[in-house]
Amino acid sequence: MKVTIFPTEPFEVENGILTVVQTSSPKFYTDFIKGLSTENGLTISEDDEILNFASNVTYLKDVVTNPYVFDAFKSSLQNQVVDNLNENNRQELFRIDRRIKDIFLQSAYMEDVPLEINDEWNLKKMVKYAGIQMVSSTVETPYDIITSVLNLFKKFNPKKLIVLNDLFNYLNSSQISDLIQVIKALDLKVLILNFSDSFKKDDFKKCRNYYIDADLVRWTD
């Protein structure tokens, strides 16, 4: 897969190898983020074919400071909960649903107006009512947040390109090395945009590492 922002040459991204785009140019950094946010100005392609941006890219921004980072997976998690129910679970939930509706119906009879209760039984609505969701407060460190998000993508949406920015402010060299190995093990396509005054190389030896300097000249490690 290639990510292109004019007039810079394309950035190569592939499964299992972290792509890092570092820059000291405020203009390039701003234009790149604007392109990700508006889905304009960036082109995603594969085998010389332009791909639909929304279908192939997820821009997660700075996942560490985003309190809603797990919301995107809420529906998928709820669907999986339903899929994991066995027949006994389903029968018990049906009985509970009937009991709840009977209680409401008895209360409805007290009103001097024609009322009825929707007889439809919908497991997904029951899960939604239960409010099952990930608790972000249990994810303790920035590294834990990042790896949790990557694991969720592997589980629910492994084919998309994941783009994040400025995560290296939160990670030490050891954690960066571990993150590179996690991405390799999960076989995900990941690009991290990072604003930096210099071309940092030591932490990214096992990455595809690009640097755009203040004159918009592209360097590759």
Layout of secondary structure:
Blueprint: E1 2-5, E2 11-12, E3 19-23, H1 26-38, E4 42-46, E5 49-50, H2 53-56, E6 57-61, H3 74-83, H4 87-108, H5 123-130, H6 142-156, E7 161-165, H7 173-186, E8 189-195, E9 208-212, E10 218-220
Parallel strand pairs: 3-8, 3-9, 6-7, 7-8
Antiparallel strand pairs: 1-2, 1-4, 4-5, 9-10
Helix pairs in contact: 3-5, 6-7
Description of the molecule:
InterPro entries: CRISPR-assoc_prot_Csn2-typ, Csn2_sf. It comes from Fructilactobacillus fructivorans. This is Type II-A CRISPR-associated protein Csn2. Helices cover 39% and strands 19% of the residues. The chain is of the alpha/beta class. The protein folds into 2 domains: 145 residues, 3-Layer(aba) Sandwich (Rossmann fold); 56 residues, no CATH class. The strands form 2 sheets. A 6-stranded mixed beta sheet has the order 6-7-8-3-9-10. Strands 2-1-4-5 form a 4-stranded antiparallel beta sheet. The model has no long low-confidence stretch (mean pLDDT 87).
Query: Which ranges are low-confidence, i.e. pLDDT below 50, for 5 or more consecutive residues?
Result: none
Report the C-alpha radius of gyration, rounded: 23 Å
Can you count the beta strands?
10
Count up the helices: 7
Structural class: alpha/beta
Distance between the termini: 19 Å
Number of domains in the coordinates?
Answer: 2
